[in-house]
Amino acid sequence: MISFLRGKLVAKQPPQLVMEVGGVGYELDAPMSTFYNLPAVGSELSLFTHLVVREDAHILFGFGSERERRMFRELLKVSGVGPKLALGLLSGISVDSFLVCIEAGDADTLVKVPGVGRKTAERLIVEMRDRAKAFGELSFAATGATSAAGPNGAQAEAFTALVALGYKPAEVTKLLSNVDAAVTTTEELIRHALKAATK
Question: Structural domain tally of the chain?
Answer without folding.
Answer: 3
